[in-house]
Amino acid sequence: MNARAKLLDWARTRPGESVKAAQERRLSKAWETPKGWRYWSAVNNTEVGLWYTICAFVFFLFAGVLALIMRAQLAVPDNDLVTADQYNQIFTLHGSVMMFLFGVPSFEAFSILVLPQMLGARDLPFPRLSAFGFWCFLIGGVFVCGSLFFGIAPKGGWFMYPPLTTEYQDGYGADIWLLGLSFIEIASIAAAVELIVGALKTRPPGMRINLMPLYAWYVLVVAGMILFAFPPLIAGDLLFEMQRAFDWPFFDPDRGGDPLLWQHLFWIFGHPEVYIIFLPAIALVATMIPTFAGRPLVGYSWVVLAAVGTGFISFGLWVHHMYATGLPNVSLGFFSAASVSVAIPTGVQIFCFIATMLVGRATTNVPLLYVSGAFAVFVLGGLTGVMVALVPFDLQVHDTYFIVAHLHYVLVGGVVFPILGAIHYFFPLVNGKSLSPRLGTIAFWLAFVGFNLAFWPMHISGLRGMPRRVFTYEAGMGLELLNMISTIGAFTLAAGLAVFLWDVVRPKSRQPLSPRNPWNAGTIEWAAKIPPEPWGARTIPAVSSRYPLWDQENFLDDYDHGRFYLPDAEEVKRETIITTVIDAVPIQCLRVPGPTWLTLIAAAGAGGLFVLATFKLYVLALLCGAIGFATILIWLWTGTALEPEKEEKDIGLGVTVPLYASGPASVGWWAMFITMIGDATAFAGLVFGYYFFWTVHPQFPPAGADGPGTFWPLVSLGLLALAWAATLAARGLIRREHRGGGIAALALGALSTIAGVAALAAGPWLTGMDPTVHAYEATVWVLVLWTGIHGAIGLVMQLYCIARAAAGRLTARRDIDIANVALYWHFMLATIAVTVATIAGFPLLS
Amino acid sequence: MDERSDPIRNEDAPDELQARRETMFMIPAAPAIWAAHFLASYVTAAIWCAKIAGRDGSLEGARWLLAGYTGVALVAIAMIGVRGFRHHSYGDATAPHDFDTAADRHRFLGFSTFLLAALSFVAVIFVAMVVVFTETCR
Amino acid sequence: MASQTEDSIATLLGETSVLVPAGRSAERIADLSWWLFGSATLIWFVVLGLSVYAAYVRPGAHDVARVRLMIVGGGAVLPTILLGGVLAYSLWLMPQVKPPIPEGAVEIEVEGLRWWWRVRYASEEGGATEVANELALPVGRPAVLRLTSPDVIHSFWVPALAGKTDMIPGRETIIVLEPTRTGVFRGACAEYCGTSHALMNFAVLVLEPDAYEGWLARQGAPAQEPEGPLEARGAAVFREYGCGACHAIRGTQANGVVGPDLTHVGSRRTLGAGALPNTPEDYVDWIARTHEVKPDANMPPFGMLPDDDLAALAAYLDGLT
């Protein structure tokens, strides 16, 4: 028996009730949810996660109503319920909203809500970042959806292919899509960073990597995918908006651009996106199945394999949306091969779930019904997925209703049904009441039958030659009956969802509370009291099993009496434990910040920047951006790298850990590192653009084009390398308590940053490169712009550190600011090196 | 007492494992090689067809290059897989590797590495099949 | 709009099923499709049967070791073999579905525009015969279609003959068609290309070689002179309202290149790229109410024309067979 077990035994002999009450009082005080109108300043994951989830579902219902309008239009041939223009806006928004405002956010929302509970943590490491992300999401989402009511919604399809959207659609639609959704993508990346750090660093002590709940594995994989998938789209959005707003011809073939560049960047995002949406739902299934079976999941490692494997391979599928673009057969073949291999891990997951049911003693209930329905639908979608992975078959069904059927079988079967089941399953954790099994069953059968009626006939419509995205079709093609059935099915599905919605919102005040752990699950989130407390975990448990509630003796009693870690909030501060990545050894007690309005103001400022820029009100937009930027600085200054009142804290069970950490031991360093990986990926997307143009043009840079030369780019490289070295030197000096030296080094760094950025712009400026002339000039300028903006951010960081050091908040022992800034500058150095090698070096070779 | 129900069982870890600072890098190694192979194949073929052979040209030279990539990738993945399998069979425990011990964590990481290597191996072969069936840049 | 009579637009545009092929490429794909549908049905029933059995019929009665074997066998090994097989089959099909450019093929240029199709047959003398929204192919002989677009991305798709190929501004893509039986086959734009994407269809006439040569000769000939006074009046209206600025009628002064060539418009199966059948009333509909028939079409509506002029114009155009 080890020391921890002995201490736990000793703790069990102590009188409990009075201590427990006092602890709970302090915890309540620390984690109190703000009341009245201040409620909206909350940042705790239980609040933000809930708002986020509800909003995602409101957007889901909105997009669902749009789908019903489309089905009504297509119910009969030659219908004129809506005009062609309205129909095109509606289908564009349906796809965009489902993908960007429901698919990805619902995963992030739900994970923000339940991941900490599953890990027995009190909150995610950056609650204010979650709140900021939520407000961005809300503002961007309302902006994009609202455009429909003014008849100016985007109408280029959710894929927005140029040149249709760059040159043939006037009005604000495409800009609303680009800027509104870019804004949301940034929020999505923020949430992804938060979730990765959460899964890696806030696991309870003892929860080694081999004991992590499968849900957390999926969170890790999916958030990682977001980090690599969204940035190329952001890069694409940047190019796109530069073309729309300033006529930089990235996609204009007359001036050396190429519409296919957008397709590459879009689908490098767009295909992983499908798995980003699908894997979390499978994670929910992997969470629920062991509960239904009453035993651990069979094939845990296999499911980890499947999640990680799918995550990787899904990045090799993007061209399977471009099979018809006339690329060489050999290129298509590679993507076909990857598309086929991604089916292997998917099959493994399904068989692991079936296997678990085969060996467990299944109890039948409503969530299981939804999961079974999901299987029936998803397996069919997966099988048609293998079909469309094959180039010959796809050349026929691509862009037809067969694909509409396929993708809805995957996304409704693989995502919506599991989510509905999960809502039914997790609902007691939200407000202590259960959903009705009777209504749940009715809703399921309506939705299931309706779904299949709606979408199965579309396979045949597609094979009979019905293209996608048509606002009408004529009689006599054999499509009338199929479409009528689809419409009837769609409304039946909607009726099922309406019943489900009623079950969720119906008043439940007279309904008794659900029992604690109503499904007899084994994972930690079910240790929560019913109704749940604002502090989340009563105590952060010591974990030694994948299913602590089943396997660890006396777990709930120990939990309720606070016999594990951090049962108290002695200083009435919000705290959670940070542990090591692999073995979950506690290394820090993290103080997390409480309610604030700063996040809302910052999001409103950033939102104003994007919304006003859409309408070309650049001055007001910059003003809003400045407000947002200033708010973020205040937030950083007052809310991060807080000075603890003591160095260490006893967190219970004989463990004492520091209250302050910097460098790789701190969550901030990880967040910076992960963010910069995403940032570097976006940069890679821009660099890809440059070399892509090289492959499509016989000569690139084009003959006679003035490049930026080599002199100024090299000067810039030298200056920014100096800025990097100065920042590193500052870190060393500050750590050796040379405050003055550190400030001087940072000042030198700041000056050479300014000079370096100026020198970088001088290259193309002095040779008179005009970005509107040719895609070459535009691409060089966009690389310069990107690097310049990053230099400016690096400058702000250097100045921030000078201010912090001058204010005495950045010292040898409190060095997290400079540690993170130095990390940023490593990436900055790589960025300038690649930029200079590309714009100045590559022309020498070709 | 049943082994599984001991709340904080933490004995069998041999010192060498307890002390070892293991990382997760072995898990993504094999799929990363798949990705590198995939990307190299795609880029090679794209540049070959765009810059060297022309739109209807022969793929011959690129096919040999790609065969070479495939050989290297398969050997590397196999080595990772073997190493993973050795970690998996550390000591005499069998799956599901779900004890709260350094040894089981070690076995789990090994087994996951092994499974991912197997998947990556198959995926590389699938990609390589393309050049067997494709002879031109059409 | 079209009533469902014998000559509904659907009938005029012809067959449109992927699974009733009339071309080499489509035939190979249809074979593959039937294999896929059959095996998918089988796999679906097995997997679903297994999961219903596991969840509802006999849960809990099975040995873990054996079930693990099922994961390895059913979840990993078997799918890998099946997927490898189907991938090999489809890769082997590729050169047949997207074949290299054959010798002695019919050469046709097709341009996709918002929202119609410009088709040019190169003639041996060096010129080209231009038609619109319709093309003819000889049965049993390959045809190479060079696809381009001057505006947005379109996609050329004749389900009965082959899969689709995109038409991308700044690029030329190629599709090889080899019809195996005669008939009329519907073509459509499959890539969303703006407001009237749904109304961008065409007919492919697959003819016996002799009939094909006759068709080509007729299309290459200059336009017929107006037959009667009404038609002559129509020709005058055509001139007076400047229709020739956008449309060409070979043999007259009308030589516009913006819109479709109308030299033999009366011979075509439909009007407005499958928006209307081709009767004199349809010409009136098209000319006077263009944007009701086809929203956002580039042609301005000529609703201000007196009814007499419209009728005459319709008669003239209908007579251009």
Offer a concise description of the structure.
Chain C: It catalyses: 4 Fe(II)-[cytochrome c] + O2 + 8 H(+)(in) = 4 Fe(III)-[cytochrome c] + 2 H2O + 4 H(+)(out). The complex is a heterotrimer of chains A (846), B (138) and C (321). Chain A has helices at residues 3-12, 17-30, 45-74, 84-118, 127-146, 164-167, 173-201, 214-246, 259-293, 300-313, 329-341, 343-359, 366-389, 391-397, 401-431, 437-463, 480-505, 548-551, 555-560, 598-614, 618-639, 667-696, 711-735, 739-766, 775-806, 816-845, and strands spanning 575-579, 586-591, 648-652, 655-658.
* pLDDT averaged over residues of chain C: 93
Q: What is Rg of chain C? A: 25 Å
CATH class annotation of the domain at 688-845 in chain A: Mainly Alpha
The average pLDDT score of chain A comes to 93
Largest sheet of chain A: 2 strands, antiparallel
How much of the sequence lies in strands of chain A comes to under 5%
Low-confidence stretches of chain A: none
Q: Could you name the CATH homologous superfamily of the domain at 688-845 in chain A?
A: Cytochrome c oxidase, subunit III, four-helix bundle
- Shape label of chain A: globular
Computed Rg of chain A: 28 Å
Structural class of chain A: mainly alpha
What is the third-level CATH name, the topology of the domain at 688-845 in chain A? Answer: Four Helix Bundle (Hemerythrin (Met), subunit A)
Question: Secondary-structure element sequence of chain A?
Answer: HHHHHHHHHHHHHHHHHHHEEHHEEHHHHH
GO biological process, one term (chain A): electron transport coupled proton transport
InterPro entries (chain A): Cyt_c_oxase-like_su1_dom, Cyt_c_oxase-like_su1_sf, Cyt_C_Oxase_1, Cyt_c_Oxase_su1_BS, Cyt_c_oxidase_su1_bac, Cyt_c_oxidase_su3-like_sf, Cyt_c_oxidase_su3_a-hlx
Membrane topology (chain A): Multi-pass membrane protein
Protein name (chain A): cytochrome-c oxidase
